[in-house]
């Protein structure tokens, strides 16, 4: 198992981004009836609606339109793409540059078909569409028009012809990508924030690993998820060669954020009329992702976190991912911003080798526990059904959407949310024993997590001991944390005598066997003199503890964490290290909600995070060494040796004149006492 990097992750913030993603792309089935305004689902939607990517009905329809038009062009059906644009985005055809490209490809495809009727249609296309459009599309268009006429006399199999590139199938995909870029900006049909954040984080991760000479432990995932090639950039219709006076800070920020040349960044800003963040979105969405793989990763994460039902209750034709039974999603965002802070490290260490799950998973206590869970949650747990992606354009444009919920209307012909109660027969539908056992595991794990979020630590300890008496011997730090919560609740309630009994019976012995726990024990005991009812919430993060407990129990039962968690954890770490190298703050981290994924916890939680990291021996980054021998350690910065403070204008000047990354520009300035002119003279001398 890969070691965990030290960077904390706020899984609640990731939950919110994932929920926004599945709602924006309508990957979950709609509810049977609108929820009351005060319902948890409504509050969650409201909380995420301020995101710049939160989709309206129009944005969702536009993204489907773009995908449909793209597929039509890739298949060579230009007529279908034009019909879609005329019906749903006629304003896009006012771009004569785009229209010329479409008619030119239509002409080639008609000739390619080879029938007499198609040849006549091709000539008609020349006369009525292509020639008129070539007159005012752009300066080079008429020359391109004359050149494309050669398609009429050179065979498509002739590899030595002057129009071999025009015959190439690759032209279809280039045009499809260009159309996607133009429509996306024209219709403001940007992908959800989760999708753009992953593109950004993974691209930085790849660059960081390449430049620092380290190998990536998630390369098998990132290579499949984010492709190397990109869609062509959208271009402005005007032909002015003079660039507007953009702020050089914006130009350099955009260029290095999405790996553009300086001129490429200027062109992108021109197309976005100087709007840096719109240009940034345009460039991010040019990066091609495997959407089906992303859906699978999100589905797996949703099952693990209890956002949607597992495969036992998935709709026909959905992704074949982990199967589970899921609990109410109302916890999302209720606790505010809290991060995971590496509290799951304890469960990833030495105990795995000595843990046998077979006795646990088939123990009678699991069946008894499940009956108690089903009885206690009867009529309460509402689960979302996974719908999967269905790019039905007719449906998208005809189905009304409740703007307050941003989910499908009840008119959608899918099963409604289901309340799993004591008498429901969901687990008794003929599924295999293995599937039922998996469902039982998840139901118990998620209930333990939710009880921990509510601060019911004593009950959690009792329940887990009844299920698996050996669990806390394998996870003593989790036991310390739960007893810590129990202690703090008693202190907050004024029962200091009972609190001291908990400390004497549990916290003291645990700290005696682990010296690293002495400091958090002392910090916990200090709360005895703090007469504050909020002592619990200020001292410990319950969502952090709940996530750690969930991960520990899951691994104890042989359930691995979702791959999306591994990607986010690792790429957030390299994002932090990358901007240490750049010696600046990320201009786009707030826009992409990356800052919320890194938010810190209360002081005691941070102390416990350090304890867990030291205990597991996983203090180093998940980035592993390669032939160069480089490896990153927690808190270290590859730029620590720099003593010269460089002026920002000097950094920008060196970056601009020498076309260098920020880190390289800073290194050169350090060598020459921060003098930009000296650096430039030395390079060109």
From TrEMBL:
CTLH domain residues: 70-118, 441-498
Please provide an example of a Pfam family that matches this protein in its UniProt record. Answer: CTLH
The Low complexity compositionally biased stretches are 40-58
Q: Which GO terms describe its biological process?
A: proteasome-mediated ubiquitin-dependent protein catabolic process
Q: Name one GO cellular component term.
A: cytoplasm
Instruction: State the residue spans of region: Disordered.
Output: 28-58
UniProt-listed InterPro entries = CTLH/CRA (IPR024964), CTLH_C (IPR006595), Ubq-SigPath_Reg (IPR050618)
- UniProt name for this protein: CTLH domain-containing protein
Identify the species of origin. Triticum aestivum
